[in-house]
Description:
Helix content: 25-40%
Radius of gyration: 19 Å
Oligomer: single chain
Amino acid sequence: MSRILKEFVMIPFLLVVFLFAETDTVYTSQLEKFPIYPQYLDKRPDLPSPFISENGNEFVIAFTKFGKYAIIPVTLGNDRDISPQLYIDGHDFPLLERYGLHDAKLLNNLTHITGWDLDTINDLGRPGNLSDDGFMAEDEDIRSILIRDNSIVTAMELTHPELAKPLFHVLNMMEWDLKLGRWNMAIHKWDHIRYFYYNQHKIYVDAEDTKGGQRSIFNDGIEGAFHIQLERQAAPEELALLAKNYHHLPTESYEELKKALFTLTTGEMEPQYIMRYGFYEGHTYWRTDPIAIALIFGLLDLNEIEEIFKNNLYEVLTEHAVANPN
């Protein structure tokens, strides 16, 4: 999925600082020791990934199909081909724009997003309308999804922009290879980058372009044409923790839990939706769950997540945000 908007609205300064505040800093003098993408390195550089240079540029270290490493610039911006990346819908969600989180009371009174009423958005978002898979399950609605996911993100002490950021980093790596002609057009796949490093995790990526384009359920002009699968392997200690806490689950449910925690399906639309609206989509194939983002990209570890959600992850990850009958 994907959607591209032509408005260029800058995120407030304080939120920009907040977005980058916890990223490791590598001074420019140290960075100059290494060639930057599109050049390669034979060995993995002794640098964190991601990192931010002295001048504010961000980089991620990736491994290519040629057995080479690359230091790829991934700085978020509003002037990229897949853009803008720092726009938040402050008209409908002023507190999201200011603090990176919603206010639940304001969400309860929400009637419109991007000028469209919620009934219209719900109709467009359910399976079989704009998308066969849908942007939400049949029993979910946009307000319930926003409220529930905002409570999950708040419980993790994260913000929606923080969770959108690593997904934009993936898009920005992909954008480099589109520009450089390193996208395998014969098979419509992005097979140049095999995996990348993020907060000491190795994350595998598999992406392809699709025929046609996916329209947005909001009045925002965003469209989508890419399908991206992200996965990181669970560490032995993570599997041991899951086995200990969820041994009571049926085998099928236990496998569903592991998949929900360590894999993501995304595209251009999802990081835009998260950044702009705090919307991770409902419980369909395209859901980009905030807990999975936090775990896969190392924003939180599994012990921290388990402590927050009281060993109740299966229910938290799978329960639908059911529309309130009132």
